[in-house]
């Protein structure tokens, strides 16, 4: 499956899909979806892309109780110009998903733009959804609410079951783990020292989200790395390699933008 449209460079879009039954015991929904042309269908588990402790996107499953278990059901339509079935998502920045039949005769590239391989674990953990979680069918989740951007897509072809797809389109969502956060209860001197052999760290009380936005918006593109930007700030923002630094690098991977302090020497190498 490929993607195109307003939100579509695949570097900014992650799609997960599960053909066949959504979950064990849910085969009865397949016939109901086809027969009744439902606009929504319930499923006991829904999926999202979450950023792990290393800054990588990883699929997570969520047990969804009644009332929070409804997934949008949509039919893919034939697009004669593409010689493929398509569906355009309903998020604020729509993306068109393209399903090309094997017999179409269209030469489809194996890579549609994403330069970084996805990490798909052999086992996807299914987590309980907190009772007080607010759920909306939108992208870019905040820490206070769990949101879903998922669909059940129906191809009007025989012997092809509905396909569950879940998306992450968070070009404007700057997601951070704690890898580069300053540890509590340590002095700044100790933190600087720790970066000699450990990951770079931002200074305590740094507004990391604001730096993310700033570097991605106004930073200089690296000449060495695709989708990397760098910026020098007026004040010390962190430590890298055992020294304080005013430089920050922001990297985009699979739609997630992640930044951390970088030494001036390393920054200038990336800008040569």
From TrEMBL:
<feature type="domain" description="Pyosin/cloacin translocation">
    <location>
        <begin position="35"/>
        <end position="166"/>
    </location>
</feature>
<dbReference type="InterPro" id="IPR016128">
    <property type="entry name" value="Pyosin/cloacin_T_dom"/>
</dbReference>
<keyword id="KW-0078">Bacteriocin</keyword>
<dbReference type="InterPro" id="IPR036302">
    <property type="entry name" value="Pyosin/cloacin_T_dom_sf"/>
</dbReference>
<protein>
    <submittedName>
        <fullName>S-type pyocin domain-containing protein</fullName>
    </submittedName>
</protein>
<dbReference type="GO" id="GO:0031640">
    <property type="term" value="P:killing of cells of another organism"/>
</dbReference>
<keyword id="KW-0929">Antimicrobial</keyword>
<dbReference type="Pfam" id="PF06958">
    <property type="entry name" value="Pyocin_S"/>
</dbReference>
<dbReference type="GO" id="GO:0042742">
    <property type="term" value="P:defense response to bacterium"/>
</dbReference>
<keyword id="KW-0044">Antibiotic</keyword>
């Amino acid at each position: 499956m490929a993607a195109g449209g307003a939100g579509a460079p695949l570097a900014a879009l992650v799609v997960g899909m599960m053909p066949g039954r959504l979950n064990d015991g849910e085969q009865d929904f397949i016939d109901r979806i086809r027969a009744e042309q439902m606009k929504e269908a319930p499923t006991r588990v829904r999926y999202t892309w979450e950023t792990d402790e290393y800054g990588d996107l990883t699929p997570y499953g969520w047990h969804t109780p009644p009332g929070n278990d409804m997934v949008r059901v949509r039919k893919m339509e034939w697009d004669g110009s593409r010689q493929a079935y398509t569906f355009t998502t309903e998020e604020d920045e729509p993306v068109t998903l393209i399903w090309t039949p094997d017999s179409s005769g269209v030469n489809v590239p194996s890579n549609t733009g994403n330069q970084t391989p996805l990490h798909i674990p052999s086992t996807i953990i299914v987590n309980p959804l907190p009772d007080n979680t607010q759920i909306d069918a939108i992208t870019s989740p905040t820490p206070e609410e769990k949101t879903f951007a998922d669909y059940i897509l129906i191809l009007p072809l025989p012997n092809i079951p509905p396909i569950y797809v879940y998306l992450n389109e968070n070009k404007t969502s700057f997601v951070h783990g704690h890898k580069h956060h300053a540890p509590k209860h340590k002095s700044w001197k100790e933190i600087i020292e720790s970066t000699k052999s450990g990951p770079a760290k931002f200074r305590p009380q740094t507004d990391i989200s604001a730096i993310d936005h700033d570097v991605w918006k106004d930073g200089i593109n690296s000449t060495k790395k695709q989708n990397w930007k760098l910026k020098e700030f007026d004040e010390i923002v962190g430590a890298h390699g055992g020294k304080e630094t005013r430089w920050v690098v922001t990297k985009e991977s699979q739609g997630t933008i992640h930044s951390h302090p970088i030494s001036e020497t390393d920054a200038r190498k990336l800008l040569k």
